[in-house]
Specification:
Blueprint: H1 23-31, H2 43-51, H3 61-64, H4 66-80, H5 90-96, H6 99-119, H7 122-142, H8 147-157, H9 162-176
Length: 185
Amino acid sequence: MAKSNDKRKGAKPAKTSRTKPTKARRTKAVKLGRIKPAKQLKPKQLAKALTAAPPDRPAPPLSLGPAAAVLDRLWSVIVSRRDADTAVSHSARLLSRGTAKVAQKFGEEAVECLIEAVAGNRDAVIAESADVLYHLIVLWVSAEVSPDEVWAELKRREGVSGIAEKASRATQLPIAFGLETTKIP
């Protein structure tokens, strides 16, 4: 028995309600006057459009302030626990083991978050993300990095293409190590 969706000789595929037009179809539709051509933006207009959040999308949490304040407070608590009793404070226990162990723990938490994300477990991703942020901040305390330094670096990168920013680091890193290559070691 043949299925109703079998392809028959000469049968046309079913049209979907939304198909992405090819460049040629779009060009033809513009020429025929069916659609308007895409508006060309001037460089300043383009820059403004790329940095402004669409009106139907909420602003990112860190731009609102309170989220960064939560992380700043967590950093302060972890700093205050640096010399606490390791039997009582998890932060003190982690910090007493040294930066290498703190970094290892951060990596473990990051991998757990990735595993949950790939598995599609939204609630677990949220919980593991909190663990990742906590352990990242413990790593900052261990490495004597303040949140203000990280926020300043993020602000410096704001509005810069990720590709351009990464390319600039790729050429600076080998030079910093005295290597004559553009490849990251």
